[in-house]
Structures are given as C-alpha cells and as structure tokens.
Amino acid sequence: MLVLGLETSCDETAAAVVADGRRVLADVVSSQALVHAEYGGVVPEVASRQHLATVVPVIQHAIRDAGVRLGDLDAIAVTCGPGLVGALLVGVETAKALAYALGKPVLGVNHLAGHMAAAFLDEGRPAPPWPHLALVVSGGHTLLVKVEGPRRLRTLGSTRDDAAGEAYDKVAKRLGLGYPGGALVDAQAARGNPEAFKLPRALPGRDDLDFSFSGLKTAVATLLGGAGPAAAEDPQWLADLCASFQAAVVDVLVRKARRALEREGLRHLVVCGGVAANRGLRSALAVAAAADDFTLYVPAPAHCTDNAAMIAAAGTQRLQTGATARADTLTVDPGLPLEGP
Ligand code: KG4
Ligand code: ZN
Questions:
Q1: Which sign does the torsion angle of CA 90, 134, 126, 123 carry?
Q2: 277 lines ligand 1 (CB under 6 A)
Q3: Distance from the CA of 7 to the center of ligand 1, in angstroms?
Q4: What is the pTM of this model?
Q5: Partner residues linked to 147 by β-bridges
Q6: Does residue 305 register a pLDDT over 80?
Q7: 144: CA distance to ligand 1 center in Å?
Q8: Cβ of 271 below 6 Å from ligand 1
C-alpha cells in the first residue's frame, strides 16, 4: 500500500511517500524555524501563509523523490489535529483537493498518533509489538500512553502544565540561546556538568503518572536572576545550567516511564516526539532498558521531530485496520483528542 503523508500542524510543511506503513520512499520537510526565530516562537498567521506557499512544491518534491506518479498512490493521509487551526487547514484542504482530483481516499490522522507510528518506520530494526507503552514528548504534549493497537490507545498520564519541549523552549529563550530551543540546550548540556545545580524534580505520589515542568522552569529563571547577566555570559556556567536542567527533565521522564511499564506489565517502550531526539534522554532510556529488561524503540532523530512519514505510517495502520476514509466529513480539530474515533 502506497500512501502520501502530509503534515502542516505547526511550523513544518512536510510530505512523504511510505510503502506498507514502514518503507520510506520519500521524506521532505520544509522548516519555517528561521522565519519564526525572529519572533522567538511560532506566529500562527505567518505559519499558515508559509504552508500555503510551500505545500504544493513540497508534495511535488516528495513524489519526484519517491520515483512514483500521483496515480500510483493508494491513499492520502493528512494531519487533522491537534495543532494550529490555519496551519492544519492548509494541509487538510490540499489533501482533499488532491484526493478528489485523483479519485483516491483521504484519511485524517491525529498528529500524536503520527508521532507514535514513527517507531514503525523501517530503520533497520523490528517494529514494536502491541501492546506497548508510548512516551510522547513534543513541544505541545507530554504523555504516557498504553497502545494496544493502532486505534486502541489509553492515556495513563500527561503534563499538568508545560510540555517537556515547551520547557526546553522557554528555558532556551530565558538563556538567550534562540528558537527552537530543545536542540540548542541539548548541545550546551553535552559540555556541562549535570550535577552543578540542584534543580527540583516534580514526582508526585508513587502511582501518579502525570508530569509537571513549570517548577523546574521557574527554578532556572530564579537561578538566572540571582546570578546576574555576567554569569550567563560565562560559557561554562551556561553549559552547566543546561546540563543540570536536562538531567532534571530526563530523570523525571525516565522514572515515570519505568513506573508505567512496571504498573502495566509492559515490556516494550516507544519514545517519540521532538524531545525524543534529545541525546541525554536517548542514552538514559537505553541504560534503563538494559537494567529493567525492556525493549526500547526510538525513531531516528529526523522522525522524532515533525515529519510526514509518521503521518503516512499512522494512516496506513488505520486503513489496514478498517478505518474509513471520507473526504466529505474530513475537517480540522485544533484540540483533537488522542482517544477519539
Ligand atoms: O514533535 P515536535 O517536532 O513538534 C511538536 O509536535 O510539538 O517537537 C518540537 C519540540 C520543541 O519544543 C523542540 O525544542 C523539541 O521538540 N526538541 C528537542 C530536541 N529537538 C527538538 N528537545 C530537546 N532536545 C532535542 N535535541
Ligand atoms: Zn509534533
């Protein structure tokens, strides 16, 4: 089954062609990060306009890279939520128009289900079996999900305030590192001492699988305020603070994932979303997997951050398990729940 995936929920315009939900034939991502960087964050109206300007060339590029013709496609899968409403509309309306012109089915995909499906893309390792646990860590979401099948998801825990990626982005902004901040803090952390600063870990009751990152973000801001502007210009001080912040985030994510695996009796962990590209998190989870004897599935860094191959993979799984693709009822939902139909 050959599926074209389309992703325009935030600030990446992406199109990909995936065969049988696993084999990536083309994977094109046009990032708007530089356009939004001067505002220190994504400007929704600017994002929609950028998507409009790039969506057709990005699709053409993907079809050319895949070496297929539009007529060869079996279906089109497009992100229909959650995300920015204007940005989502560009992808969904483009997908519907293309599907209508080609006489092919078009299927709406939840962006978070897409992130989880990235673990199925063939990167030279086996696909995760069901049931498994998914730790979704992105700019907008931090979730622990029990995945019993492509359309059988149960949320076990989520963040009570900031998402992990959002905390990274806000800390990076306070430290004057720029936008998007996750990868920049990650790079600084690699040079720093993770024990230089004692930062709080929000770990409520033993059975609680929720997260909270706002206290940590405030602690960094307080440290920065107390140290004064000269400290932030000291490269080692900055690297140490980034390393200490990263250690606190990673510690909480790893502890909660282990707790959820144990509580649910699961032996397979998928980690996905932009923060899954983080080197500290990837290596801490690998250590935990060896210690607790579970199998870890982490997509390649390019498939952790937003891309359309993951949307094509999730769409294929849904089609294979009987989801109906209907252009007339397909619409966008900026707050689309994960456990919807
Ligand atoms: O999944 P994603 O591309 O978009 C959303 O669905 O939100 O995630 C973007 C988030 C941003 O907050 C970004 O700072 C973070 O992922 N991120 C990272 C790294 N690379 C991206 N966070 C920590 N370390 C990284 N290496
Ligand atoms: Zn995402």
A1: positive
A2: yes
A3: 16
A4: 0.95
A5: 132, 153
A6: yes
A7: 17
A8: no
